[in-house]
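A reminder before we start the practical. When you read a complex entry, don't treat the lines as separate problems. The point of joint prediction is that each chain is placed relative to the others, so the output describes one connected object in space. Small molecules and nucleic acid strands, if listed, are placed in the same frame. In the example below there are two entries. Take a minute to note the order of the lines before looking further.
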Amino acid sequence: MRSLIMIIVSCALINNVVLNQFLGICSFVGVSKQMKASASLGVAVIFVLTIASAVASLLYNFVLKPFDLDYMKTIVFILVIAALVQIVEMFLKKTSPSMYKALGIYLPLITTNCAVLGVALTNVQDEYNFIQSVFAGFGTAVGYTIAIVLLAGVRARLDESAIPKPFRGAPVVLLSAALMSIAFMGFGGLA
Amino acid sequence: MNRYLERIYNGVVRENPTFILMLGMCPTLAVSTAAINGLGMGVATTAVLILSNLIISALRKMIPDEVRLPAYIVIVATLVTITELLIKAYVPVLYEALGIYIPLIVVNCIILGRAEAYANKNSVGLAVFDGIGMGLGFTIALTVIGFLRELLGAGSVFGYRVLPESVEPIGIFIKAPGAFLVLALVIAVLNASHVKNRSDRMVNGCDGCCANCAKSASASGCGEEAAK
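Here is the predicted structure of the whole assembly.
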């Protein structure tokens, strides 16, 4: 149990997926303009990443590994993730229209989010079993949500500040991300 | 100018994927800890890009429009797997340094973006030169960012120490925050020298459809599909 909690802490804070591993940068800087959208995207990522880690882990441990198809993992994972997101989208549309309305537009966005493929591949690299993979996926997604919501908060404040002209737009957002990344380095002491 | 050479000029200067189009930021930030890593990643991505442009352009009349994105992904993933195995076999040092970011070339927006924006509409020859140009532009950009980070963070260039021992390098530049810092400064310099780039779009208008970012503003791709 302790080790599972450690996996979550490690994935969410110490090795934060955006601020430390640079996965999912596009949506991190692209969507963080609005707090509400950031939070919704965060929830959608938690949802998809947990399921995707579980499916990828099952597939790897019960199909790819026993049949010595290790080298196929990139192709298999990317296709399964793309199909999975489609299925989740259809399932939500049918069973929970309100949730679909809130998260629907973010689901296709997640297919191209490199964090999903990144986590599936990292789980294989770290030789995580099924339970560990699910926790790692969940922890990573929580880390993503924390980072994007924090950046959205910072950006809301930035809108009201006087920023030198060349730094307006992308540079100041990246500088904020750099400072957050420095702050997150402090979590390294937890490991 | 010759149409083929124009493609190369376009990829390196006019529509440089990193500095102007602001695509493929994940690998740009992640592997630019040293100039040599940036160069290695650039070359690997270029190889995949040239071949994927070639294959997708050659098959552009055969792939049905409705399933083109999955088809492209399979082609790109296959090429990436081949590249990964080759790097693992012949340049194990680079394989260790780039790690998980080699398979992640699959989700590099530049590759799918060029397939959607260029390769599926143009002849094989032009598509290959587009791949060479874009790949070269990406490689140069990654090497430049890697060079800056290595120089500031480790005081060396391509592994050779150039700063005198008395100068203490600023270690943060080769750690994660340094990537954001250097990219922010590079974009600020571009803005200050009035180089038109898409950085604003990167932070304000990402709809998650990488193919859209790779195109001109008027053309549409995934968004159109979603609307149907």
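Discuss with your neighbour: The longest helix of chain A spans residues 35-64. What might explain this?
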